[in-house]
Amino acid sequence: MKIGMSERMFDGATIEEAVAAASRIGYDGVELRPLPRHLPADISRSRLNEIKRMVDDHGLEVPCIACMPASYLDKTDEECERQLDEMKVFIGFAHELGCKVLRHWIGARPSREATETDWETAVAWMRKGADIAAQEGITLALELHHGTLIDTVDGALAFLERVARGNIAIIHDAANLYQDNAEYGKAAVEKLGDRLQEIHAKDIVEVVDDSNPAAGRPYRGRRFVDRMIDQGGVDQYSIFAGLKNIAFDGYVIVESGLVSGLDAFAVADGCYNAIRRIMTALKMDQQAQEK
After folding, report:
1. Domain count across the chain
2. Which pTM does this prediction carry?
3. Over 90: is that where the pLDDT of 69 sits?
């Protein structure tokens, strides 16, 4: 199992700062984001080559390109086709960067509000996207996320079954599921099994009101604040115990938000070390050596 760093903590910085920080801390890879100072869709070939050299020079991999949220719901066919066209652009970037996985999105609507027509639409367009990606040797990874069609593990697995494409996998994100009180721990990880592409690791905690100035994310009448990994409300040990049980050998990506009072480097460093402590406590390093 490898530990990667999402650039999310460095959204306000440059890609150079993010990559250098990931390397200095000890991460194995960096998950790139399509932001203006990172990996925008209109990036030049020369700049893309610079990024490739920079990642390589720092001894890092690019396990995933985290394309930004899109939705096939409430869109015209022309708008959906444009989303697929943009996906093709990032497939090209993935090839240049030695990456085999793109994060993809299907529908910005909670499953509890979705109609059968919504599901049919998402399935049809997901098949188109998966077929395009498969021709290029790319896996499309769908993130478990509150407020979207796949906001539960069971719902995500049922969706994969309906789409019936082998190059679609799941990104587990416990902090997202936590906000909906959805199952996320050991049993959820074990259910995902070989359909699990990667883990997004982060931590948040529910607060009782808006007294904390950092509690800026209201969701369904509740409020949440970012915390360092293993310092919030998410049971990290249960997640990693599930990973141990399925002998997961992919990437755990730290995708933390900024924590009040800390800069991006401090958050990235602290979260990395928290994951190492959890893995050591669960003897996961020993398991990796035995493999």
Report:
1. 1
2. 0.95
3. no
Alpha carbon distance 11, 263 (integer Å) = 12
Strand order from edge to edge, sheet including 203-207: 203-207, 222-227, 217-219
- Residue 48 phi/psi, 5° resolution? -60, -40
Residue 260 lies in a domain: no
For residue 289, is pLDDT > 90? Answer: no
In a domain, 52, yes or no: yes
User: Which residue segment(s) compose the domain that 250 sits in?
Assistant: 2-200+235-255
CB 100 within 8 A of CB 138: yes
CB 154 within 8 A of CB 191: yes
269 inside domain: no
Asked if 14 contacts 54 with a C-beta cutoff of 8 angstroms, the reply is no
CATH code of 48's domain: 3.20.20.150
The answer on pLDDT for 179 being more than 60 is yes
